[in-house]
Design brief:
CATH class of the largest domain in chain A: Alpha Beta
Oligomer: homodimer
Largest interface: A-B, 156 and 157 residues
Radius of gyration of chain A: 25 Å
Structural class of chain A: alpha/beta
Number of helices of chain A: 18
CATH superfamily of the largest domain in chain A: Glucose-6-phosphate isomerase like protein, domain 1
Largest sheet of chain A: 6 strands, mixed
Number of domains of chain A: 3
Helix content of chain A: 40-55%
CATH topology of the largest domain in chain A: Rossmann fold
Low-confidence stretches of chain A: none
Number of strands of chain A: 13
């Protein structure tokens, strides 16, 4: 089916959806009417174990969903998903598999890649992480001056820290190992200097995370951190571990520090939270058992994702609605608004996951995409977001929203009831009312008080923010992301779009090195704009 | 000019700009050609004291700029700006002035509102802040058990904390008063519980910030915090100050705590960083003198903004380019990417400032807007953003970017030069190359390595991140925001879009109170969707 020349936008069902979208713009399909249909919630919501997905306030009807399921079939998404989960080299441009789901597989079944079962290596790394984190927690393993480790500095950028940051924030309430976690990602020296003011070097353990061990920012930061530890009279390499590919420069001798944990080229950075990339820091921060339960939650959603038929498949339904909103209703952005402060770093993680995976311009068979793939993802927790940018959502430029609610908070509720309700109840009153207000709107004589409504949203509910539920949430967004890609027929696992900037930066670095080593080197051969910036950098100030 | 019925989209110059935008889509106006024009940078950049604004990589020509200046004249923006700065009631729907610029005025000139000089009150609050912060810093004023204050908890939401958070992060390097700053904004109890684990109650000072002193979240959090302090055996009111309107419930007796600092109804929340809203916490965190220098920087940009003619007026030029990108070239989002970790909270602040101010659907004279006002603002610091969502920027859905560069970092540079360059030089190599790569693109046989280019960006340069320069940056974005509103002819100072959600939440709160006080109260009279959510909240779990 999805062979040479295939473009989803040329299929009959795409055309039918285009026509249907015109139909759906009619006043009778305004959300204020749709939500009043009897059985609306029952018909437009799904539940799998502890994960509830409500799309009753999306601008869809049964016909919409039928067409979207036809679209999914046309794009052959179930076959593609299985191919991914079973170790085929679905990342065709890089000739790699995409086996993040294997990172949380616990079944005795093999997962074969090039005829070799990958589960052996994965299990070995898991056992290594467990043993290592136990040694740190029980004080068997200490810093070079004998102090127990209390500070963890994750040195890594992009996919090497965003997911870990999300999960660590989400599970702060469980972080009872006496560890503080810091993220040294940005090559900007302010990032390093700020962390320096917060750590005690003798009790600091650095985790240097880079698949290739050549990532410029990470290498620069690792070097800076090691120099600092040495300057404090410490044996720096006894304060470092590495997470890297087998055979990388960080996997050998001196550079590997106390221990090396392998990551694999079949798990991409932005999908690597459940591998050693997340496993090492999260196990140190939360304890290995909680990391394990986090994996279990993710695993459960993986199984659902692989086997549930389209109409019951939560990540697939949500991917289809995303595409409906984007390509047919014309929304170019998507907000992620968790009504839960611990999920404050969910949006930055999903931002990378989605925008890097699906911001593509060619199909997997190298045909120009003529439809738009990828949307802008942004978000802040509610109720904060209501007091920030929701004005635009209600009365300005509309954008679809994922609301996320948590039935029970992590901490027991206080007895304060300022307006007769607990803070958690207040939070929920807002969660419920925002989705309603956006959907239903309000007529008013006064134009400033008129609300057009018809603004779509979904609501995800979790019973609580346990490690397993955070794992479910992560796996849900990962699966939604790849299903979108499978529908668009793009490769969500490469990222060539970051290459051009790197190439130009390499050239500029050479210019800077030349000037660093030779005061007489000038930039007159460069284009006028570049020259100006390089001159400012060396002058240390703006022109008078 | 801008009288009844006026709509900017009906003016001849709007039509000319529409036509011109079509012209600009021609291949010869691709940015790769525009940036090579001789004198491009000199002709398409502006500087005012220590603020440099480069728009050479925006998709504009001299003709574009001429038309945009004509648009500014048509919208009569200079008159509107002066009316605002001189105390006229430009916030017509609420019959209020918008005098955030007065908060940083130091001239002896009066600013009259209703015939009364507002500067007296403003000066008095400033003196009060100075005296108060000195008393805290020198230990004259202490907690109820005699401990010096070491923890500041800002209790406020939206405009009551986002700007302070941005500035406090930006100036962390200057925070030498031994104070830690915490933000209790979200009504979610996790926010409170997390802060509880980080503070020492005896040395904690709370700043409760709410203009009306009725903001639901803030009142709930203040009550919770006071109950906690009391439960620790402390006299809670000796650990609290308030920032509120004269005569509000927080301005009286018991509720006001140690001291009340007035805020004024002529300064809106999202524009209030330079008032007592930012002044009290920032003076405690950084010392009053640094807050004062921050005000000075903002003031300098205000003067430039008020008096500079259109072609030299940096905030106006940037507002015009924003509208050009949004209404004429069709970009619906705008990223803010500071190449400076300390500016990591700039984007959330600008997100509120812009999206709440300009996400409107009616003109100031109550005519329906038929053009879109307001864009989605998002962003993370570079280089982090490069490793997160820049794939979409380069090869997917394009969006204009504000890059921000800082010539000299706050900390002296380390001697580490991993690739022959310092970390700060590496940061700049990336800053320069991203803007170039986006603008110029790259041809390639291989489609996955093809970069279309023609992606617009501006670059702002500051000499350093001093308090004054952070003030300049703030005032620049404030002025850009109001200039955009003046061109669209909307009121950027109201926010009726947040009202509907509040009204519905009020109704739901009553339902929750009824159930809290009467177990027999059920939700059968509610619509099916609302009922489901309320039942889940009380059941404490998802349905089986």
């Amino acid at each position: 089916m999805a062979e040479n020349g295939f473009r989803i936008s040329k299929t009959p069902v795409w055309k039918k959806l285009k026509e249907h979208a015109e139909e759906m713009k009619k006043p009778e399909y305004h959300l204020k009417h749709l939500v009043q249909q009897k059985g609306r919630l029952a018909n437009f919501s799904l539940k799998n174990v502890d994960f509830f997905y409500d799309f009753s306030r999306q601008r869809v009807t049964e016909k919409t969903m039928d067409l979207l399921f036809e679209l999914a079939d046309t794009a052959d998404v179930h076959r593609k998903y299985r191919a991914m989960a079973e170790g085929q080299k679905v990342n065709v441009t890089e000739n790699r598999a995409a086996l993040h789901t294997a990172a949380r597989s616990f079944s005795s079944q093999s997962i074969l890649m090039d005829g070799k079962n990958v589960m052996g290596e994965i299990d070995a790394v898991r056992r290594q992480i467990r043993a290592f984190s136990e040694k740190v927690h029980n004080g068997t393993l200490r810093g070079s001056t004998g102090k127990v480790f209390r500070h963890i500095v994750v040195i890594g950028i992009g996919g090497s820290y965003l997911g870990t940051e999300f999960v660590a924030n989400a599970l702060f309430a469980f972080a009872d190992k006496g560890m503080e976690l810091h993220f040294l990602s940005n090559v900007d020296s302010h990032n390093f200097e700020t962390i320096k003011t917060k750590i005690d070097p003798e009790s600091t353990l650095c985790i240097v995370i880079s698949k290739s061990f050549t990532t410029v920012e990470t290498m620069a930061n690792a070097m800076q951190m090691k120099a600092y530890l040495s300057s404090c009279g410490l044996d720096a390499m006894k304060h470092c571990v590495t997470v890297t590919s087998k055979g990388s420069p960080g996997d050998k001798g001196e550079e590997s520090g106390i221990e090396t944990f392998h990551m694999f080229d079949f798990i991409g950075g932005r999908f690597s939270v459940t591998s050693a990339v997340g496993g090492v820091p999260l196990s140190l921060y939360l304890g290995y058992d909680r990391f394990d339960r986090f994996l279990e939650g993710a695993r459960e959603v993986d199984i659902h994702t692989k086997y549930a038929p389209s109409p019951e498949n939560i990540p697939l339904v949500s991917a289809l609605i995303g595409i409906w909103n984007n390509n047919f209703l014309g929304y170019q952005a998507q907000a992620v608004i968790p009504y839960a402060s611990p999920l404050s770093k969910l949006a930055p993680h999903i931002q990378q996951l989605n925008m890097e995976s699906n911001g593509k311009s060619v199909t997997i068979n190298n045909y120009d995409l003529d439809n738009s793939s990828g949307v802008i993802i942004f978000g802040e927790p509610g109720t904060n977001a209501q007091h920030s940018f929701f004005q635009l959502a209600h009365q300005g430029h509309p954008f679809p929203i994922d609301f996320i609610g948590v039935v029970s908070p992590q901490y027991p509720e206080g007895r304060c009831r300022p307006h007769g309700v607990s803070n958690h109840q207040e939070l929920w009153a807002n969660l419920i009312s925002q989705a309603t207000a956006l959907a239903v709107g309000k007529d008013a004589e006064e134009k400033t008080r008129f609300f057009q409504g018809n603004r779509p949203s979904s609501t995800i509910l979790l019973n609580d923010l346990s490690p397993a539920n955070v794992g479910r949430l992560l796996a849900y967004y990962e699966a939604q992301t790849v299903y979108k890609a499978f529908i668009w027929d793009i490769n969500p696992f490469d990222q060539f779009g970051v290459e051009l900037g790197k190439t130009i930066a390499n050239d500029l670095r050479k210019e800077i090195v030349s000037r660093n080593t030779n005061d007489g080197h000038n930039f007159k051969h460069m284009d006028e704009i570049t020259r100006f910036y390089l001159e400012r950098l060396f002058a240390g100030k703006l022109p008078e």
